Amino acid sequence: MHAVILAGGKGVRLRPYTTALPKPLVPIGDQHPILDIVLRQLASSGFTTCTMAIGHLGHIIRAYVGDGAQWGLRVTYATEESPLGTMGPLLPLLDRLPEDFLVLNGDILTDLDFAEVLRHHTAAAAPLTIATYHRTVPIDFGVLTTDAGRVVDFAEKPSLDYQVSMGVYGLSRATLAPYTPGLPLGFDELVLDLLRAGTPPSVHDFTGYWLDIGRPDDYDRANAEFTSHRGLLLRGV
């Protein structure tokens, strides 16, 4: 089983933590960089090979991960010279990838079974499989619905429910074949293209632990929760 880890972003929202470190290498619990946890999880799930898509401060990631031997993985690298979006970095790699593979962001904490996502994707024969998580978003305002200059409905501080992408995907090489290597390709563009083509992505619903470390408060929460969640995140490692 093969995984591609997207680790080329600048981590702008997480500054100042990412001023000198790429986001996947910021430490959690003063012990494990995020990327260390992800690589441990992949290895324990049965993955044997991995491609690191690097860009900003990529030389630091390469120096830390090396060939992946310390995790029992064979790691190779693809360098993003300019921003290519979420899926764009995969396009020049297609001839080096198996028909079905896992793609994940290098900055998430979760106890999701990565191997199960890939198995789900293969069994569904879908062009793309998206791991999803239920999010409830509170709105701290009274929300008005208006029509023709009049209020027709009102809700005081409602909550909105969404299924959101976890940043973990099962993907098939044929799905990316129509796109041009070297040009940007976002996850949003790919999903909309698949919907327009009548070939919708499959969904892998998940109800366990998931935290996208995108902002300083997310990072603070990850550190605060790591001690109590360590056994969950590093289960079987």
Structure description:
With 237 residues, the protein is of the alpha/beta class. It has a single domain (2-131, 163-233), classed as Alpha-Beta Complex (Spore Coat Polysaccharide Biosynthesis Protein SpsA, Chain A), CATH 3.90.550. It is 26% helix and 32% strand. It is built from 6 helices and 13 strands. The chain has helices at residues 34-44, 58-65, 114-124, 173-176, 187-196, 216-233, and strands spanning 2-7, 27-28, 32-33, 49-54, 74-79, 100-105, 108-110, 128-138, 142-147, 150-156, 159-172, 202-206, 210-212. The strands form 4 sheets. Strands 5-4-1-6-11-8-12 form a 7-stranded mixed sheet. A two-stranded antiparallel ribbon has the order 2-3. Strand 4, helix 2 (58-65) and strand 5 (74-79) form a beta-alpha-beta unit. The radius of gyration is 19 Å and the shape is globular. It starts with a strand and ends with a helix. The mean pLDDT is 88.
